[in-house]
Amino acid sequence: MPAVAILGPRQCGKSTLAKHLISEMDNTIYLDLESNRDLKKLNDPETFFEENSDKIICLDEIQRRPEIFAPLRSILDRNSKNGQVLILGSASPMLIKQSSETLAGRISYIELTPFLLKETGDNNLKSLWLKGGFPGSFLADELEDSIFWREDFIRTFLERDIPALGGKLQIGNISRLWQMCAHITGQVVNYSNLASALGVSGHSVKNYIDFLSQAYMIRILPPYYINVGKRLIKSPKIHIRDTGILHTLLDITDRNSLLGHPVYGASWETFCVEQILSSLKGWQGSFYRTSSGNEIDLILTKGRDLIAVECKASSAPSLSKGFYVAAEDLKPIKSWIIAPVSESYVYDKNHNIRVGNPMHLINDLIDKQD
């Protein structure tokens, strides 16, 4: 593609990655669009790109200046070669509308996440779960420093990023909704209840949640639908994507306070869902729940393959009758119980159910794909 965009939440390592990449290339230019000095170089973007047509241009924080996409289209077409521009942004293509509309067919998107378990290793599972995967939080030597970093991240997102990305969105409402979402992470969304608590319309709540999703702060997990002759829950679930941010929003400061918090089980489910869906490309994620309460936390589908995943925060997990009833509806080729365990083992041979941590499932599906 003429342009490649690396997108993801702020402070997840996009600039570090890009600078590492271009340091190994010849003829590159890096522009930080938050810098007035660099921004002035693009007062006449067509002339700038024409004079540097032999170079790879890296544009960082593109969401700050989305109007650049309009002239960029003709520039890319005129030069007629791949690998002209590397774009970095802290918002999804839908939030940066100009990129998806203007550069259609000319740009490839890559999502960069905070650190995942496959990068930190199983031995760091509890730390990654508690502190989250943002480098500034996870790599902090002291837990107190990690907490300070996350508090600053939340404050900066509310005070700086929302005005830049959200236009006329009410910062106070977004802040309160974000905290409400933290309390109901892993649960089905009730837009009416949230709207009533905020004193706004259900439509506004949906807009706020969509914004947080497009800014990579929450994950909207859709319901899995299949015609099984039963009444199914059709509202989505929401998950705070980074459990470190989740814990800070809930004032959970250490592992002991997490263990004693009502959100403990939901936090583990949120952690597992994010690790699995961010690590497995090509697999679609959803959840299954009937109106009678039979449910499965995560349904993974790829083509005709369907895998059922239940998340249990116990090191000695067990399944309820509702899981087996739901599995009978869906008939998965394999089921997993994802728990904080170090070794994987067979739980129920007759129903092809296995216990393991998130990496055991991820490696199993990667090996199956290979």
Looking at this protein, list some descriptive labels:
14 strands, 19% strand, 17 helices, 370 residues, 2 domains, 6-stranded mixed beta sheet, alpha/beta
Radius of gyration: 22 Å
Q: How many domains comprise the coordinates?
A: 2
The count of DSSP E runs of length 2 or more, i.e. the number of strands, is 14
How much helix, percentage-wise, in residues? Answer: 40-55%
The main pleated sheet reads as:
6 strands, mixed
Q: What structural class results from the helix and strand content?
A: alpha/beta
* Estimated share of beta-strand residues: 15-25%
Figure out the total of helices. 17
**Backbone shape:** globular
Mean pLDDT: 91
Question: How would you sum up this structure, described in words?
Answer:
By secondary structure, this protein is an alpha/beta fold. The protein has two domains: 109 residues, 3-Layer(aba) Sandwich (Rossmann fold); 253 residues, no CATH class. It contains 17 helices and 14 strands. The strands form three sheets. The protein has a six-stranded mixed beta sheet with strand order 9-10-11-12-14-13. A five-stranded parallel beta sheet has the order 2-3-4-1-5, covered by helices on one side. β3, α4 and β4 form a beta-alpha-beta unit. α7 crosses α13, α9 packs across α13 and α11 packs across α12. It starts with a strand and ends with a helix.
